Amino acid sequence: MDDDQIRSLVDSRNGTVKPAIYSDAQLYELELERVFGRTWLFLAHESQIPKPGDFFNTFMGEDPVLVVRQKDGSVQVMMNQCRHRGMKLCHADSGNTKAFTCPYHGWAYQVDGALQSVPLEKEAYRGKLDKSKWGLIKAPRVESYKGLIFANWDESAPDLVTYLGDMAWYLDGFLDRREGGTEVVGGVHKWMIDCNWKFAAEQFCSDQYHAPYTHASAIQVLAPTPQNKPDGSPLGDGQTERPAWANGLGGVQFAGKGHGSAFFFTENADANVWVGGEVSAYFRETYPEAEARLGKVRALRLAGHNTMFPTLSWLNGTQTLRVWHPRGPGRIEVWVFCIADKAAPPEVKEALKKSHARAFGPAGFLEQDDSENWIEVQKVLRGHKARQTDFCMQMGLGFEERREDGIPGITNGTFAETAARGFYQRWVDLMTGKSWNEIEAAGAAWEQEVIDA
Ligand code: FES
Ligand code: FE
Question: Which family does it belong to (predicted)?
Fold first, then answer.
């Protein structure tokens, strides 16, 4: 597929996309190279590998990688692939080791990826193997942002903070509420969903429109109000006010460079806390510290969904951070982490873990609502005619503006697809751009055009 054909699939000026972007196998192969081969991909949280020799086993796109803490405290990212015949070196999810030994013929690598020993080296290789040439392949770029570790295969990519752009402002609201930063609480939930990665990433980037309808039953159960309580009586113990996202406050922000955020806040810290019980009380108690660090708007922002392009998403409030690892055009492997302030007391971390799993674990009552939709759309796309039919992405077209209250990015109403259009424009720019200069310039031009329109 050539560049013009790829460009014809997304019309971000008029708000249409062609479904081939979710189902075409050839496009998917190009994505592995041009999107996942050159964007910053989230791998692990610093708290998961605190000591030298600690490792976390994960993926960059479909490539298996090991994220390993080195003796000097730095982090290296290397292919989890033996250089002899390509066997997966390490099958443990995480742990601590002095070496990675291949289960096939026994080549062993140091934690920095250097090939250390080869069975029967003298007899089999007659002393001729140059081990210095056969170390593990490493990601050339590894950087952290406030506890989150990322890597990039592309040496020419902008640094991580430049890549984040305005999205760092939103990410800070999640990671920087309290002194000491955050940590991962509990293990990583992993499961498969039969849908293209862009359905999940785009929804967290931009789609507030689905919430009142898809999550209608959850909203009613989760957030009783005097209005929807049958007897109209006041809220009782443990009952929270109707969440801000159910009321449709705030707006969807396109944060530039493909990133997006649905942003909700009210003037009342209590009204925005909808996760219940100890977790609500904790957010309320720590609000002054958060306000001192982040300012009022972000301190009050305790709900809202976000995507950092391409596949890292998170939700304020339920504290879920997730990666949509691609597994072919019609499948993703979801990895979900619960993020808590390091300074939170143990009982709050425990409560957060439970509230997180209840809402957004694999059986979470909100999680299931979302994935069911993506699976059904993907099933429809097995039809030939279904794949020829343009999708409408025109909500809020022409109503984009910059805010004057310091919230960065391009704003639109609560129900708008500006961030989705920006997300797909970034996808096109990456799929067709020959250099990062070209990609960044195309993104900036698109933003200006949208504002001027
Ligand atoms: Fe790893 Fe042979 S494939 S030692
Ligand atoms: Fe949802």
Answer: Belongs to the bacterial ring-hydroxylating dioxygenase alpha subunit family.
**d(Cα 64, Cα 122) in Å, to the nearest integer?**
31
Number of domains the chain contains: 2
- Output the ligand 1 site: residues, CB below 6 A: 82, 84-85, 87, 102, 104-107
- CA-closest candidate to residue 325, choices 184, 185, 428, 189: 189
Instruction: Please give the average per-residue pLDDT across 157-172, as a whole number.
Output: 97
Q: Whose C-alpha lies nearest to ligand 1, atom 4?
A: 105
Does ipTM come in above 0.95?
Answer: yes
- Full residue range of the structural domain in which residue 363 is found: 3-39+166-452
C-alpha 135 to ligand 2 mean position (Å): 43
pLDDT in tens, 386-438: 999 999 999 999 999 988 777 889 988 788 999 999 999 999 999 999 999 99
pLDDT at residue 272 greater than cutoff 80: no
Same domain, 197 and 309: yes
Residue 403 maps to which CATH number? 3.90.380.10
Q: Nearest ligand, CA of residue 118?
A: 1
Cβ atoms 269, 298 nearer than 8 A = no
The alpha-helical segments, DSSP class H, found in 176-262 are: 197-206, 211-214, 216-222, 244-247
Q: What is the largest CA-CA distance in the chain?
A: 86
Residue pLDDT, tens place only, 4-23: 999 999 999 999 999 999 99
Indicate whether 257 and 391 sit together in one domain: yes
* Residue 305 maps to a domain: yes
Give pTM, 2 decimals: 0.93
- Report the alpha-carbon distance of residue 207 to residue 245 in Å, rounded: 12
Nearest residue to 111 (alpha-carbon basis) of 138, 140, 84, 88: 138
Using CA atoms, how far apart are residues 183 and 226, in angstroms rounded to an integer? 37
Is residue 179 located within the same domain as residue 30? yes
Q: Kindly state whether residues 233 and 195 are assigned to the same domain.
A: yes
Convert the pLDDT of each residue in 211-246 to its tens digit: 888 988 877 766 545 444 434 444 444 444 544 444
Query: What are the catalytic residues?
Result: 105, 207, 210, 215, 370
Q: How far is the CA of 57 from the centre of ligand 1 (A)?
A: 18
**Pair type for strands 54-60 and 94-96:** antiparallel
